[in-house]
Amino acid sequence: MTASFRFLLFGVPLLLLALLVVWLPALERRSGDPLVEQAETAIEDQVLSPAQVALDRELSRIGGTFPGHTGIAVRDIAAGETLHFNGLEMFPQQSVSKLWVAMTALEEADEERLDLAERVEIRFDDLTVFYQPIRNTVRRQGYFVSDYADLIDRAITQSDNTANDRILRRVGGPEAVQDFLDQNGLSSIRFGTDERTKQSAIAGLEWRQAFSIGPAFFEARDRVPEARRREAFESYLADPVDGAPPVAIAEALGRLARGDLLSPGATATLLSTLERTKSGPNRLKAGAPEGWVVRHKTGTGQFYDGEQSGYNDVGLITSPEGRTYAVVVMIARTRAPTPDRMAMMQEVVRAAVRYDAVRYADRASAGSPETGAGSRATMP
């Protein structure tokens, strides 16, 4: 087994591994995905280091005691190893999926099928739902003029739904984004669909353009019969159209950091953009000590009957010495107050930071050549 797919399946006794695989039918639908196939059959045959044992216990404690259904993955990119809690299950991504739209667009630009300086004019018919700062300009003057480089920046740093959906249409729609994922060995990540379609379906509605203005969407959602609303909400969470396993997102982020998904220029652009993310300042980012750099993307789903769906933050955290970890925290559903959700995410980051301090301090004291950034570059 290559280090690229070495998953440490802690918290699950080996004799229950087969039951784990049977229990995850959503993963089995996308056959041929090496990530899923390796993760389903991986049995760790190496003794964990003290740092890995400590992180294992911490992730199990954090995820297991949080009042909600949580998935966590932490990937040591230099070592090519991932520790996780519920990391093989499918969790709703919500706006985390904007990452894949941006990557698809940047690849299109590299292959000269998209000019990032191409002029874009957005009008009322382009507006979507929920958070979309562009809408303010459109409502004020009837249009918004920009280019695709700016829209990528807005989609990532502001999580602007209209910016994201306009990029999505330009690159060829949901099928083009899923093709990007599939061709890069990330087919266990489902892109899903555009924001209009997805959010309407979760609410038990069919999209109407009038929903994009003011409180129209919320008013229409309030008129949906209770039984239909509950069925739509529960159906989404049971089999999310935009579902992804945390370990797969951690793998994708690790490959992005190593420059294995995009060209050097596109990689630098996306990493710089993720570093300027404005949403979720109190999620992963607030758990990082001074001197650590956090590049991340949030995702937040709808509320129903007092329950939050799809509350996420995923990203890359880099130590002052240059060691980088992919950290993925996804909450499928919870009734916990928002501050508690954010505090849980911060705990995961602090656990990864402690792991870094113990693992690489031990190697430094032992004189190991593996100490330092990128010293264990075992991924292909």
Describe the structure.
The protein is an alpha+beta fold and 380 residues long. It is 44% helix and 16% strand. Strands 1, 2, 3, 8, 9, 10 and 11 form a seven-stranded mixed sheet that branches. A two-stranded antiparallel ribbon has the order 4-7. The N terminus and C terminus are likely disordered.
Topology overview:
Elements: E1 6-8, H1 17-22, H2 25-28, H3 34-41, H4 50-65, E2 68-76, E3 81-85, E4 91-92, H5 98-110, E5 119-122, H6 134-141, E6 144-147, H7 148-157, H8 161-171, H9 174-183, H10 195-202, H11 216-222, H12 226-238, E7 243-244, H13 246-258, H14 264-275, E8 293-300, E9 303-304, E10 307-318, E11 324-334, H15 338-366
Helix pairs in contact: 4-15, 5-8, 5-9, 7-8
What's the number of extended β-strand segments?
Answer: 11
Profile the largest sheet: 7 strands, mixed
Number of helices: 15
Percentage beta strand: 15-25%
- Can you give the helix content as a percent range? 40-55%
Could you tell me how far the N terminus lies from the C terminus, measured between alpha carbons in angstroms?
12 Å
Contiguous runs where pLDDT drops below 50 for at least 5 residues = 1-32, 368-380
Question: SS-based structural class?
Answer: alpha+beta
**Average of the residue pLDDT scores:** 87
- Gross morphology: globular
Specify Rg, calculated over alpha carbons: 20 Å
Order of helices and strands: EHHHHEEEHEHEHHHHHHEHHEEEEH
